[in-house]
Amino acid sequence: xxxxxxxRFADTVNRETAPAPAPMPGGELHLIAFGLDREEYGIKVxxxxxxxxxxxxxxxxxxPPHVRGVTNLRGRILPVVEIRSRLGxxxxxxxxxxRIIVVDVQDRVLGILVDAVLQVAKVxxxxxxxxxxxxxxPQTDYINxxxxxxxxxxxxxxxxxxxxxxx
Amino acid sequence: xxxxDNAFKELIDDYVVECLPLAERVxxxxxxxxxxxxxxxxxxxxxxxxxxxxxxxxxxxAMMGLAPMQELAHALEDVCALLGRDAELQTEQxxxxxxxxxxxLVEQVRAAxxxxxxxxxxxxxxxxxxxxxxxxxxxxxxxxRRGDRRGTAEPGAEPSGSVVRVDFRRLDTLLEVLGExxxxxxxxxxAYRRVARRSEAVEELGDLDRTIVAxxxxxxxLEAVVMGIRLLPISTVFGRFPRLLRDIAHxxxxxxxxxVSGGETALDKAVLDRLGEPxxxxxxxxxxxxxxxxxxRRAGGKPPEAALELSAVSHSGRVVIRLSDDGRGLDEAxxxxxxxxxxxEVRSADPEQIRSLxxxxxxxxxxxxxxxxxxxxxxxxVATSIRGLGGTIDVESQPGRGVTFVLNLPLTLAxxxxxxxxxxxxxxxxxxxxxxxxxxxxxxAIHEINRRGVALxxxxxxxxxxxxxxxxxxxxxxxxxxxxxxISSGGKRRGVxxxxxxxxxxxxxxxxxxxxxxxxxxxxxxxxxxGRVACILDAVRILDQRIPA
Amino acid sequence: MPNSFLVVDDxxxxxxxxxxxxxxxxxxxxxxxxxxxxxxxxxxxxxHPELSLVFLDLNMPEMNGLELLQRRRAERLHPHxxxxxxxxxxxxxxxxxxxxAGAWDYLRKPFQPADVERIVARALSDxxxxxx
Lengths: 167, 549, 132
Fold this sequence. Notes:
The structure holds 3 protein chains of 3 kinds.
Chain A: H1 3-15, E1 28-36, E2 39-44, E3 48-53, E4 67-73, E5 76-81, E6 99-105, E7 108-114, E8 116-124, E9 128-129, E10 143-149, E11 152-157, H2 159-162
Parallel strand pairs in A: 2-11, 5-7
Antiparallel strand pairs in A: 1-2, 1-8, 3-6, 4-5, 6-7, 9-10, 10-11
Chain B: H1 12-38, H2 44-63, H3 67-85, H4 92-110, H5 118-140, H6 142-147, H7 168-198, H8 202-230, E1 231-233, H9 235-238, H10 241-252, E2 256-261, E3 266-268, H11 269-273, H12 276-290, H13 294-299, E4 306-315, E5 318-325, H14 332-341, H15 351-356, H16 379-388, E6 392-398, E7 402-410, E8 415-423, E9 426-431, E10 435-440, E11 446-449, E12 452-457, E13 460-466, H17 467-471, E14 483-489, E15 492-498, E16 500-508, E17 522-527, E18 533-537, H18 539-544
Parallel strand pairs in B: 2-4, 9-18, 13-15
Antiparallel strand pairs in B: 1-3, 4-5, 5-7, 6-7, 8-9, 8-16, 10-14, 11-12, 12-13, 14-15, 17-18
Chain C: E1 4-8, H1 12-22, E2 31-35, H2 38-47, E3 53-57, H3 65-75, E4 83-87, H4 92-101, E5 105-108, H5 113-131
Parallel strand pairs in C: 1-2, 1-3, 3-4, 4-5
């Protein structure tokens, strides 16, 4: 799905002009919200090990395009990837607000480069709406839904699918 | 209660009359059991029948106060029960133990009037206990068995009592932590230098300097100890070859003798584990392709039995393994012909280069396909394995006289002495073993032939690539870079242009995370003294790459 | 009337031992019957209702001690005669099974003449109490 399509959908939910699909029942999601360009995204806190500042990232020749490089995390060599291209965004410019979110998923530890880490939030499930069918496509199966919470819109990502880790 | 004050001691003759045939029956049963197991059949019924008899002998001996026989019968009962539960223990060794126990029981019962020999039965019972504890140990460590079949015995290890069993993965962890220590030490040195430049506290600086030097010595000693623990003698790999070779030679109808030397040469277990297969392939190829039949040999004036020599020698951090045969030698004309047929360009004047062609995929010097050749593996697979270990493989040959393969392996995979170079502000580590020379680049020295960079080096014309182009950081070739390094392996050489030569360092090799895909030119990563990550270049792969037009 | 006893055991040696035990001390003058297997033992039990005590070995071929006890219980043969089960090793479980089958007590090997005397004395006083 194009970026515009996603934004349009988000606006729809925001304005409540379209009949919203039934929200999910009780409970809450514990997530970490981060920013890429102007949007907010969220991933489950359970998969996050830590958040670090961006220090030297060493390029690795002939590595896949979404791999930014590797960095030294207390003696451990951490691959750093970008998920921007997957989401249809331009490559990142690193600023002082940039961070690396270190995640542990499917026994792999790697870092995701983001523009900023916004907060860790407990979002009630009934503020989450699953994306309607016209938004979802095989290319965008990584979107779990959108949380409309505290005046903000957080696009919920399924990390494994974003990282294309599932066979 | 001893036998002396036993109320029934006057019945000793009756005891012998009753128990001697029983003991003999037990002994006979065990002999039969051993025979059956050796023939590959089962003896479970025998185990069942002998249990009751042993029980009776035990009870009788107990009543008579004859503790040695009682303990012996009891121990034998235990073994039978254990065998009933664990079929894996039905080995020759266990059978021999039972037979020995049976005949000891007969002996003791026969001489029961003397009261029994406590010491000898105790010795036997100790053997049974040892068997039992081995059995329970093997049951508890089933998953460990998968990973470390050779155990962790050091060369010249003491017999049990002064040996500790350690999971080999713990030694990897130990090495990692040591590596981090080395990195931090380098960082400390750099920090010291920065402080020293700006400080006037001369005396304190002197103390600090001395401490850092002392720390380095300690780190080096620690490194030596840790590496030493991981070392195993190469005989653990060489040991099984004579037997395997006999089988292969027999299958090929050839007569071969293998002489092995340098078995005590030690290598890191991680290298050793991956050395067996390529060596075996080389041996197989030697017998199948290199060595002639006894008739051919006689016709050629050679002894009918071929001689194979396998040796290992270590020096300056590397181990050199040589495998030579006195067979046919390489047929260089045939190799050249094959190369042309495959469309490869070869400088026919360079015999070394011709010979190294056999390590390319698609080469086979066998004219006919023998029965076993299907099992034989191409030498390219062997070369890849050896290079994967950070080693090199070369071949020497004399037509009609034989072939010698020379393998040069690092003592360890874990720490590699490297040259650190800089290209476009990125640093890379190149293992010293693959660096032939570093040269200051004079612009006039690099020429262009067919739009490819070449340079004259030690009388040879070698290709020179731009480091930036090779590593993807720049697209314009031969920018004004100040140095080039000559990397070499297996008779191949190439120059790579770089910006700076930073220095030498022992780097701790960390593998490539799967997230990084499969880069061709990079074999691993490491952390330099300043905390930055550097990629370790795979010199061998770089040399294998075709020169871009 | 002297006391009579039955020993059921497949070991000739044990029979010698019992003979020795019953020829001395307080047990001297007793009548002892011998059976070398369970079947024989059962027959002899049936033929001698006057027995004071039976010593029954557990491990015997053909019919073992436990099986003899179970048969006796099933056929209600001379329930008044106490039977001692003689074993080499015994777990609590074995003991329970023996008692369930009708054993009056256990005698563990190796035993000494004194152990036999003790158990005989107890059996005799028990039966006297019972018939009193």
